[in-house]
Amino acid sequence: MTAQKPKLIVVLGMHRSGTSVVTRGLLTMGVSLGDHMLPPVKGDNDKGDWEDIDINALNVEMLHAIGSDWHHLKPVGSDDVEKLRDAGYLQRAVELLLGKLRNKSIFGFKDPRTAKLFPFWKEVFNACQLEVSYILVVRNPISVARSLLKRTGMTSEHAYLLWLGHILESLIGSIENSRTLVDYDLLITSPDAELARIAESLGLKII
Questions:
Q1: CA–CA separation, 112 and 134 (whole Å)
Q2: Which of 44, 73, 165, 204 could cysteine-pair with 29, CB 3.0–4.6 Å?
Q3: What is the pTM of this model?
Q4: Residues 15-44: pLDDT tens digits?
């Protein structure tokens, strides 16, 4: 009998697109998010980002290591992935993720930076030999731009290009894997129905 691979659910999407809401919803399906989460930020995300502190910190560090940041428009290329690999980040990420999965049947995480670093993280998931499912959260780019303008002062043009980069990277990178597309506005208007649909697509049940 072939041993069952550990299950991982990765929530992908642009900043300010509702990835936090979707990730929080995974708890209703019995998905572990770990016990080392970023704290809520009053006035920004009062209910929490639902991001693992360690994965978030690693993403921030890796972007800085290749001279990038969450708001940079230049995509992460193969040369960047090679640089991260040579600097030991692949092994660090593998060890971190396997540690998060220890004694858990299913683990999930989100950080919008993961979409930007998707070419790197794909190598991590393959090295860990995981059964990976993706949830792609999409929000109207106009709404995203308005939220980023209020939050950071980012121009609409910059926000639209950043949104497009995250969406394309998520769609292209997950094309050969199980994935579920979630419309943020539909989730807000029909949360119970959408969570049930997400659970069904993942082979899970609301508990």
A1: 13
A2: 204
A3: 0.94
A4: 999 999 999 999 999 999 998 899 877 666
